[in-house]
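Design job #97: recover the sequence.
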């Protein structure tokens, strides 16, 4: 395999040229050598000093010394065995390693400038992470990850770059090997729970792992306990609550042991503890093999943390396997005939907008994002006319957060009935009340990603990703992999004006309005005969006292209304302008009352959507979410005066758009603005 894409390095090269001209060494202001980069909550128990490798090493430091191997990295004084085990697995895939840790950098003059770069796959894209080479030390030695060779620093610098991505060194404490493997490859994670094998048939774990190994998948294993934060060394040498790299497989060719399956693992602690059972280093079982057979297995019995064991012992002692399968998001070239087809959808669960919770909360489940998937062609090697897909849902954690602060995530898939195939609308509550899920995740997880493989008949489906509880907020990345081409898109309302009902009053009502407000208008308008924003605020506060709870009507809403109805651009309203405003306010008040279902005096986002639709304005989830983020109060709701302000803004923006459309007609969806046009439309309200 070879690299299929050029990874970003423009920023690195630009900084390198600047530093070489100035003769200075790089200092990273985004991840500086101070306590904020070390910890988020808990200070280290010792006083650490930041030093560059040239000040740590007695000789000239090296990025690499004798190439790269899985024994080059050992865990330091931090519970990040999951990361170190993932790095060890990465070293066995040279092309992948070179992509993450570019080899064209060193401590040699003239290229050295105190700066190094690494590449990580982060939530759908490859990003370049640049760091300086200050490293935490204690008593002159590296405190965290280090190489077995004191002159070699690639592993310590790679760990620092990943700590920068996580937010601090402390944020790397406790995790899963699959998380780091995914950030090294862009792959999709598949987990095997060895404690609960499939109910039907037997799972050939060795076959699954060997196939994954042949396809360049990266793998790890762990022994999980209820006290997951406590690492304990067992009498057999294995450590609970600890991640191991899976580094190799072998079948023994011996007349007496034919068919014996072995698996090779590595403890990221390095030389601290290894398996002590059968087929461990220097155990008597190895003497049953010929010299040629031992040479074929490339046996090395060093205190390096790496060891062999039988598959039976492996399955009896380990509880979980994590496999990172390469996908089209990988940096490696793939066989085009066998490559996955992939669709990515980024979204957000937003409280009161798109965070409806799981199917248990049927009242709000339908507001979750909905992705429509059309599977057309069955797999070539499937005799049952079915389509294979892998669905991966990932919560986008910009910084690593403790597990108890992460909202659990999962998804469900529903088959769309024939009679609903032509609908373009989002599916409502009734659909999910009356339709059984075709497939769903077995549980909701606080892990970063949950993925499942399904074999479904050709047809159309709606996939609903969600958090477990409503109103739990997070960003997400949904990836759908298929062996055959397919279509997928998010279902959303199209932002448009339907029919705007014009307010109308009878002649008798018009007379009543004139009688009722003429004196009030004269009282507040003063000598200039116009009402400015402050005078309008007084009038509306009195008129809508029961709706604004004795508070002043929003001054911002008054400014917006004056901007909307100020035809002669004086910055104030004459009587005719005020009269036109009052007529439409009567309509808006009636709509607010009608859609404020619980008569709370506030609207939630669902009520706001329906109210806007009743007034003729249909808004997409994206547009509605933007409005909600801008205008909601602490309770996440919209008060009456803010409802008025939103309406004015929506109307003015629609009018500005319609005045600048490039193509007329019902499907006009493009407008051209000069910079002055844009500023005027944006600042008018």
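Job complete. Output follows.
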């Amino acid at each position: 395999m070879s690299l299929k894409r050029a990874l970003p390095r423009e920023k690195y090269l630009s900084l390198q040229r600047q530093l070489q001209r100035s003769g200075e060494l790089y200092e990273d202001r985004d991840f500086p050598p101070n306590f904020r980069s070390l910890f988020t909550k808990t200070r280290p128990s010792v006083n650490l000093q930041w030093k560059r490798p040239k000040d740590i090493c007695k000789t000239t430091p090296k990025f690499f010394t004798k190439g790269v191997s899985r024994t080059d990295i050992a865990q330091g004084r931090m519970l990040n065995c999951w990361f170190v085990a993932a790095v060890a697995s990465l070293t066995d895939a040279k092309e992948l390693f070179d992509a993450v840790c570019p080899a064209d950098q060193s401590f040699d003059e003239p290229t050295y400038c105190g700066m190094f770069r690494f590449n990580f796959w982060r939530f759908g894209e490859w990003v370049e992470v640049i760091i300086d080479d200050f490293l935490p030390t204690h008593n002159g030695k590296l405190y965290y990850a280090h190489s077995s060779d004191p002159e070699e620093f690639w592993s310590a610098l790679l760990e620092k770059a990943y700590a920068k991505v996580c937010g601090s060194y402390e944020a790397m404490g406790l995790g899963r090997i699959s998380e780091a493997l995914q950030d090294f490859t862009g792959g999709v994670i598949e987990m095997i729970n060895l404690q609960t094998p499939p109910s039907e048939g037997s799972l050939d774990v060795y076959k699954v792992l060997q196939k994954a190994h042949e396809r360049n998948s990266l793998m790890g294993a762990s022994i999980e306990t209820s006290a997951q934060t406590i690492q304990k060394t067992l009498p057999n040498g294995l450590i609970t609550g600890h991640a191991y790299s899976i580094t190799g497989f072998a079948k023994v060719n011996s007349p007496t042991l034919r068919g014996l399956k072995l698996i090779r693992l590595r403890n990221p602690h390095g030389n601290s503890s290894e398996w002590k059972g059968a087929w461990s280093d220097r155990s008597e079982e190895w003497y049953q093999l010929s010299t040629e057979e031992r040479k074929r297995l490339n046996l090395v019995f060093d205190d390096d943390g790496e060891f062999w064991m039988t598959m039976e012992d492996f399955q009896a002692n380990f509880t979980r396997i994590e496999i990172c399968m390469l996908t089209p998001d990988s940096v490696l070239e793939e066989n085009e005939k066998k490559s996955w087809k992939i669709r990515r959808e980024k979204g957000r669960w937003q409280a009161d907008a798109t965070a409806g919770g799981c199917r248990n909360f049927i009242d709000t489940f339908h507001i979750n994002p909905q992705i429509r998937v059309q599977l057309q062609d069955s797999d070539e090697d499937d005799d049952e006319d079915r389509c294979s897909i892998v669905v991966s849902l990932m919560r986008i954690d910009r910084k690593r957060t403790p597990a108890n602060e992460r909202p659990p995530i999962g998804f469900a898939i529903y088959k769309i009935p024939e009679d609903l195939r032509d609908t373009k609308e989002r599916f409502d509550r009734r659909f999910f009340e009356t339709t059984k899920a075709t497939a769903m995740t077995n549980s909701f997880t606080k892990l970063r990603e949950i993925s499942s493989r399904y074999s479904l008949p050709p047809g159309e489906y709606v996939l609903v990703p969600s958090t477990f509880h409503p109103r739990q907020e997070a960003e997400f990345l949904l990836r759908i992999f298929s062996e055959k081409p397919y279509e997928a898109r998010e279902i959303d309302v199209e932002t448009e004006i339907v029919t705007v009902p014009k307010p109308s009053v009878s002649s008798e009502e018009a007379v009543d309005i004139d009688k009722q407000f003429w004196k009030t208008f004269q009282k507040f308008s003063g000598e200039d005969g116009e009402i400015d924003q402050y005078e309008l605020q007084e009038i509306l506060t009195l008129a809508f006292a029961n709706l604004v709870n004795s508070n002043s009507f929003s001054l911002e809403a008054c400014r917006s209304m004056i901007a909307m109805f100020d035809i002669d651009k004086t910055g104030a309203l004459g009587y005719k302008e005020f009269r036109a405003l009052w007529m439409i306010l009567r309509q808006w008040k009636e709509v607010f009352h009608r859609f404020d279902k619980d008569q709370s005096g506030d609207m939630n986002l669902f009520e706001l959507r329906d109210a806007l639709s009743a007034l003729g304005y249909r808004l997409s989830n994206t547009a509605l979410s933007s409005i909600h983020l801008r205008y909601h109060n602490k309770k996440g709701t919209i008060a009456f005066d803010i409802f008025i302000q939103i309406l004015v803004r929506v109307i003015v923006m629609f009018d500005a758009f319609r005045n600048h459309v490039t193509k007329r007609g019902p499907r006009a969806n493009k407008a051209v603005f000069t910079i002055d046009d844009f500023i005027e439309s944006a600042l008018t309200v």
